[in-house]
Amino acid sequence: MQTSLSQEWYKFRHQKGPLMGILALLSLMFIMAISVPVTRTAIITGFKTPQWLLMIIVIIGANFMIMEDQHTTIRTLLYRHTYRWSIYLAKLLILTLYTGVLTTLSLLFIVLLKTTLASQLSWQSERLFSHLVVGMAGTCLVGILLLTIILLLSCLFPVNTVVICLGLILIFTGQGIASLTIGSSSPILVNILKWQPLNMLNLMAQLPDPSYQKDTYLSNSQLLAGIIGYSGFFLAIGYWRFKHKRV
Fold it and tell me: What's the whole-model pTM score?
């Protein structure tokens, strides 16, 4: 496992994508911050950071997972390892670490932007800082769930443009589809549909704003349990597909 981690980390840090992703995220946050009034809501939502952050995770994750298929180096990698699970898990751990780094840098940059552009707003006012931190933590958890889905899709469709498009569709329409299907269903179906994986994406919005519970029909702890459960499920299915992959 340690060998796989070292190899995956070496490949990851020698790509241009991860650094470009960080620079793109910070640039987009800055543009949003100077384009809209810096209000309490804008700060809590991180100047639209969750959407940008998840988009970058999808792009970087898909490229990192599929690059070896495109360059046919996956054959050499698999032949040198007896246990494929170490390769798959190492890729997930590296991408999870990257997600954590993106989240932390985003949080620090939001604090800097708020201090510079809206110093009149107090961090203690209506628990502004705690709501921001909780919201970013929710984004990080949703990002990890999204990573397990991206890795699974990469094993099913080893074409990065396809995986990226599917990932972006999840980001921009997943929550809306979940709300639509739940809101238009009978009470019996609601009890089933509220546990769909798309509904778990609402955690990042519901943690700082409990009013979302009327749309998700789940508490914060239930959404968190759902994210953990689905992450494990997609991880297992993705590894099974990776294990039986023909190269």
Answer: 0.90
